[in-house]
Each structure stands twice: as structure tokens, then as C-alpha cells.
Specification:
heterodimer; A: 183 residues; 73% helix; B: 325 residues; alpha+beta; 7 helices; 12 strands; 18% helix; globular
């Protein structure tokens, strides 16, 4: 690519996808590290601009995933993530008590899930990826992704049903009936 | 309301950058001050970065694997055995040949114990995927060989993955797409799932080329044991004795009306899984969006079986320049 064309393409890429990469970084590593992750991801994207696919979001999120895993000490990442999850559970002001309760139940249950489940669920629900793209981010086939998502949905449902904040137990009847019979 | 809709509505505002903290200028300046790299490529990267995988050397390009054979995928394994594939190691018979289904707790422990006994084996799986509910389709057949099945940190790991897609000329045949051989050192538990330096031989049938490269690859696919443990942890399921391809099996089924279905068939004489079937749901709970069947084999690491861990470069394929990541 000609340099000017490359710069134009890259700045367009940054403007379009920066917030999406940031959101993913927050959900995986917390706000304390998110800006650094974003900066590193786009540095890699610039260096490899020639090979970026037409729809670059999965590629950018895979890069973010790798950056999060390799560029930060595990303890620092866990600390930042714990602070983030804690903030999700502490609630946000709202005028409608039911909405707060419902939101608390969902976020509390999500925060309590294993990290892998949380990633599967949020890739689709929050980051807007298609199942195929989400599968490519976590490094599995579409079919495997669906199976894992199915399991994660079940665990989220069970966690919500067990949450004291849950106002939606009646809607989770299907999950409640599926309590583990093997312990 | 569907659970995914609830989750979408609960998206925290913290995922959006705070006003006044625009780092655009500094991020762009940092990146643009860095030289761009040359053209690079990543074998098979768009398909999957996580791996497990493996085929007999004599089989080249368009093999004709019938859908009928795949429907009973254990038949495929039998057929391969008959044409030169190594047979699975005989397992000692367990005292489970009666008609009674063992109590769940006992069966769970027996299966995990049996899986533990295969840690030094070569894992062999044949996986078929169909996506009747996906307009883009996802039909594929994948054969994977892994050695060892449960690697220890510092141990050299060998993985081969052979990927086949439906033939353009027939609905009932598959064509080789690519064949990849990975060799890497198992990272420590703390670095599990992170990219690790991996030697790769990648054979691409479409372009009739192959490459020999080193890249950072994240091996995120769980082992069979991990997969089974995850299945157990998912929740309740039923057990019964049934027949699969003429053989008595223990069938473990986990399902709910609108949440998909997962079945494991376990050989009661070995307590090892022989086949799994999963039917996933869509983002909004649409049933039957994807179906996946996996045949499982456990092979002793004999020289003949170990040879299956190497990708096959068919005659006439040309080598592309070595790529360094």
C-alpha cells in the first residue's frame, strides 16, 4: 500500500473500531488496562495492515485477546478485571427499581461465571459478533462455539436463578428444572 | 425474555470510553511512527486458532466419503482401520456388561478414570459439522490427531488436523481442504491458551501448495477429558443403555426443550467415550442451528500410529516461501 493510502485506511479503521476494541478490552481486562490494550492492538494493526481481512473486527479482537494474555502480568490483569467485575455488580443509579434488580441479577451472575463462559456470552451479546466471527475470536469452529455457548447460557441461567437479586425466576423455569443430578 | 436479550440490555456503560479521555491522537502517532511489516500470512488462521487434529498418507485430494458412512461415523473409523489405519488399543473389560445402568456418580468416576488412563495415547477424532439453520452453511469434516492427549508442561506436543469440505460436484462427498501439522512445547498452566511458538507444516489443497513456518498459535481447544468434565458440569442428564452401530453403549443425554441437546455414548467395556453428538441453538434459542458429531479413538503411540501425526505433502505440490511471524 502507498503510504498515504495506508494512513488513510488505518485512521479510518481506528475511528470505526476503536470503541469496539475498547469494550472488548474492558470486558476481558478491566478499564485500568483497556487503553493500553487498544493502543497495542492498533499498533499491531498498523504493522500488519496489508493482511487485515475485509471485516477486521474478529482479527482485532483476536489481537486484543493475545495482547491481554501476553503483555500484562497475570496478577495485574486479574486485579484490573476484578475491579471491573466488582463495578458491574455494585449497580448503577436508576429510577426504576425493577430494572436495577434485573440488571444486577444478570451482571452478578455473569461476573460469577468462569472467564471463558463470560467471553462467549459477551462476544455475541455485547460486542455484536456473529456466531461465526465469535468462534474465530475464541479459536474454535462455529459448531464448537454453539455447543460452548449452549453450556454457558445454561450456567448463566442457573447462576441467575440462584441470585438473590433475581426477579426472573419464573422466566428461568427451564433452567431451574435442570439442576445437576450428578455431584 | 430470552437470557441473551437480558444480557444485552445489561451491558455496562463502562464498556464505552469515558468522555474526555480520547487517546486517538497518541494512539495514531504511536502506530504511524512504527514501520509496517512485510506481507505475512497465517496458515488456517481465519478458520481457527485453537487446535487439535489428523489421515492416512495414501489418501489424496478428493476422497469420497459418503454421507451414509458419516451418518454412522464409527463406520468411518472401522473403514479406515480396514484400509490400513491402526486399530484402537484393546481395553480391559470392566464389570459393566450387565443390563443395569450404573449409578451416575459411579459412572462419572469410571469415565474420568478411564480417560486418565489414556493420557499417554494419541487422541483421534473425526468430527462432522452441519449447520442446517445457517444460511452460510458450515458443513465440514475434520480429522484430528493429538499426542499426547493430556500433555504436561514442557512436553513436546504433536497435533495434526485434516480439514475437508463438501465437494462442489456432489452433496455426498468431501474434498480435502487443508492438512496442518503443529509441533510445540506445552506451556505452563499459567500460560495455557496463550499463543505459543509453534512449528507448522501447512498443506493447502486448493492452491496445491505447502509451507513450513513458525508462528505464534493459541491452542484453545479443550482436551476430551476437559470437554467431558465440562459436559458433567453443565447440569443434569439422563443415562440409559442403548445400541450404537450394533454395539451396546451407555448413553448420557443432556437436553432441554429449547436449549439444544448433547449426547455422549460410552463403551461399557472400557468406560471410554466413542461418540458424541451436539445440537446447538442460535443466539435467540433457535433449535437445530448446528449439529456436530464426533467419533473418538484412543491409539497407543506405536511408530505406525505416530506417523499419522505428520501432514502429508502430495506429489506435485509446491512449497511457498517460508513465513516467519
Amino acid at each position: 500500500l502507498d503510504d498515504l493510502v495506508a494512513i488513510e485506511r488505518f485512521t479510518g479503521l481506528y475511528d470505526r473500531y476503536r470503541n469496539l476494541v475498547y469494550a472488548y478490552a474492558v470486558s476481558r481486562a478491566g478499564r485500568q488496562l483497556a487503553d493500553e490494550v487498544v493502543s497495542e492492538v492498533f499498533l499491531v494493526a498498523w504493522r500488519r495492515l496489508e493482511v487485515l481481512p475485509g471485516d477486521p473486527l474478529p482479527w482485532l479482537l483476536v489481537t486484543a485477546r493475545n495482547v491481554i494474555g501476553s503483555e500484562f502480568r497475570a496478577a495485574a490483569r486479574q486485579e484490573s478485571l476484578a475491579a471491573e467485575l466488582s463495578s458491574w455488580c455494585s449497580g448503577v443509579a436508576s429510577d426504576i427499581a425493577d430494572e436495577v434488580s434485573e440488571r444486577q441479577a444478570v451482571l452478578g451472575a455473569l461476573a460469577a461465571l468462569p472467564e471463558a463462559d463470560r467471553e462467549l456470552l459477551t462476544l455475541s451479546a455485547w460486542h455484536g459478533l456473529s456466531p461465526r466471527d465469535a468462534a474465530s475470536v475464541v479459536g474454535c469452529s462455529a459448531a464448537t462455539y454453539f455447543v460452548r455457548l449452549h453450556r454457558a447460557r445454561r450456567r448463566l441461567g442457573r447462576a441467575m436463578a440462584g441470585s438473590p437479586e433475581s426477579e426472573h425466576r419464573h422466566e428461568m423455569a427451564g433452567q431451574q428444572e435442570r439442576q445437576p443430578r450428578w455431584t | 425474555m430470552d437470557i441473551m436479550d437480558l444480557l444485552a440490555q445489561a451491558r455496562p456503560g463502562s464498556l464505552d470510553p469515558r468522555p474526555g479521555t480520547d487517546r486517538r491522537a497518541s494512539d495514531l502517532a504511536r502506530a504511524l511512527a512504527t514501520p509496517r511489516a512485510g506481507v505475512t500470512a497465517q496458515p488456517g488462521a481465519d478458520r481457527r486458532l485453537g487446535v487439535r487434529r489428523a489421515l492416512p498418507p495414501a489418501r489424496v485430494v478428493a476422497i469420497g466419503t459418503s454421507v451414509a458412512a458419516l451418518a454412522g461415523i464409527a463406520g468411518v473409523v472401522v473403514a479406515l482401520t480396514a484400509t490400513g489405519m491402526p486399530a484402537a488399543r484393546p481395553q480391559p473389560a470392566a464389570a459393566r456388561a450387565g443390563t443395569a445402568v450404573p449409578p451416575p456418580g459411579e459412572l462419572k468416576n469410571a469415565i474420568l478414570t478411564a480417560l486418565n488412563s489414556t493420557d499417554g495415547d494419541i487422541g483421534y477424532t473425526v468430527m462432522t459439522e452441519t449447520c442446517p439453520g445457517d444460511k452460510d452453511g458450515c458443513d465440514s469434516l475434520q480429522k484430528d490427531w493429538n499426542y499426547p492427549i493430556q500433555p504436561q508442561a514442557g512436553q513436546e506436543v504433536h497435533v495434526r488436523s485434516l480439514f475437508l469440505t463438501p465437494s462442489n460436484t456432489s452433496d455426498t462427498q468431501y474434498t480435502y481442504a487443508d492438512d496442518t501439522q503443529y509441533t510445540y512445547t506445552e506451556p505452563s498452566a499459567a500460560k495455557a491458551g496463550l499463543p505459543t511458538r509453534t512449528d507448522i507444516i501447512f498443506v493447502e489443497y486448493g492452491s496445491r501448495t505447502w509451507s513450513d513456518t513458525t508462528a505464534q498459535v493459541a491452542f484453545t481447544g479443550g482436551t476430551m477429558k476437559e470437554n467431558f468434565q465440562e459436559f458433567l458440569a453443565t447440569g443434569g442428564f439422563t443415562t440409559q443403555k442403548t445400541t450404537l452401530n450394533g454395539q451396546t453403549m451407555l448413553e448420557l443425554t443432556e437436553h432441554s426443550t429449547n436449549e439444544g441437546e448433547e449426547i455422549w455414548w460410552v463403551d461399557p467395556t472400557t468406560d471410554l467415550p466413542v461418540q458424541t453428538y451436539s445440537q446447538g441453538v442460535g443466539m435467540n434459542g433457535e433449535p437445530g442451528l448446528v449439529k456436530m458429531q464426533t467419533d473418538c479413538g484412543f491409539l497407543p503411540p506405536t511408530p505406525v500410529n505416530m506417523a499419522e501425526l505428520k501432514a502429508v505433502i502430495p506429489p506435485g505440490f509446491t512449497q511457498t516461501p517460508t513465513i516467519q511471524k
